[in-house]
Recover the amino acids of this structure.
C-alpha cells in the first residue's frame, strides 16, 4: 500500500516529486472505474495541490469571441450514476459523467450567435461565490420542444456546452444543479424562445473545464 493514513501528505509529495506520472495515472484509473482515489491507495486522496502562480496574457488576441457549437447538452441529475470530481485546482474535470442504465443525455439546438455564457459573483465578504448562467435562443415552437419544456420545468439538470475547438465546459453538479427559465415569442419578426439555464445557488466553483466524454445522446430525429 503506497500511502497509509498516517503521514499521507508527506507520502503524496514525495511520490509526486519522484514519480510525476503516478498521481495523474492513479486519479485517471479511479475516475474510469468509478472509485475515489482513496479507495485505490488508502489514506488521503492523491492530488497535486494548486500552486499560486502568475496569469499572463495568452496568445495575441485571447479575448476574441470563440465560436460555439449549435447545441447545448442537458442531463437530468437523477439519471447520473457517477459525477467525476475536479482536480485539486477545482477547475479541470478529466473523468467521465456516467449515466444509469437505459438513460441518455439530450441536446437542444441553439440559434448560432445567441449562446451567452456568463458567471457573476454574489455575496458579502466571507460568503462570496460564483453563479453561472447560460442563455440561448431556440427557433420555432415545434411539439418536441414544447414537450421538453412541460416535462422538465423544475427538473434538476447539468449542462455541457462545446466550443468549436472541442473544448467543453460543464455547468451544474448533483448538489448544485441548474434549472431553466423560458421566454417565448411569436410576432411579426420571429418565432422562438429564449432559454436561461442558471444555477440555483452560488458556489465556490466556476463552471468546470470538462475533458471527459459526452454521455450517450438521444438522437431520435431532428425534424418533426
Amino acid at each position: 500500500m503506497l500511502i497509509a493514513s498516517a503521514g499521507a501528505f508527506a507520502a503524496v509529495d514525495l511520490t509526486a516529486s519522484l514519480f510525476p506520472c503516478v498521481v495523474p495515472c492513479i486519479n485517471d484509473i479511479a475516475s474510469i472505474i468509478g472509485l475515489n482515489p482513496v479507495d485505490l491507495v488508502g489514506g488521503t486522496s492523491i492530488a497535486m495541490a494548486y500552486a499560486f502562480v502568475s496569469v499572463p496574457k495568452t496568445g495575441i488576441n485571447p479575448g476574441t469571441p470563440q465560436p460555439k457549437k449549435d447545441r447545448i447538452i442537458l442531463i437530468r441529475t437523477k439519471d447520473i450514476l457517477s459525477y467525476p470530481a475536479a482536480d485539486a485546482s477545482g477547475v479541470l474535470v478529466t473523468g467521465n459523467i456516467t449515466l444509469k442504465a437505459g438513460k441518455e443525455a439530450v441536446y437542444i439546438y441553439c440559434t448560432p450567435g445567441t449562446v451567452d455564457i456568463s458567471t457573476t459573483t454574489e455575496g458579502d465578504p466571507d460568503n462570496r461565490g460564483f453563479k453561472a448562467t447560460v442563455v440561448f435562443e431556440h427557433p420555432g415552437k415545434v411539439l418536441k420542444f414544447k414537450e421538453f419544456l412541460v416535462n422538465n420545468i423544475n427538473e434538476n439538470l447539468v449542462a455541457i456546452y462545446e466550443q468549436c475547438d472541442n473544448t467543453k465546459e460543464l455547468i451544474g453538479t448533483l448538489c448544485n444543479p441548474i434549472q431553466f427559465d423560458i421566454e417565448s415569442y411569436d410576432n411579426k419578426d420571429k418565432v422562438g424562445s429564449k432559454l436561461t439555464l442558471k444555477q440555483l445557488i452560488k458556489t465556490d466553483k466556476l463552471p468546470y473545464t470538462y475533458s471527459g466524454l459526452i454521455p450517450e445522446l438521444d438522437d431520435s430525429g431532428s425534424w418533426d
Observations:
- The mean pLDDT is 82.
- The CA atoms of residues 30 and 39 lie 8 Å apart.
- The longest strand covers residues 129-139.
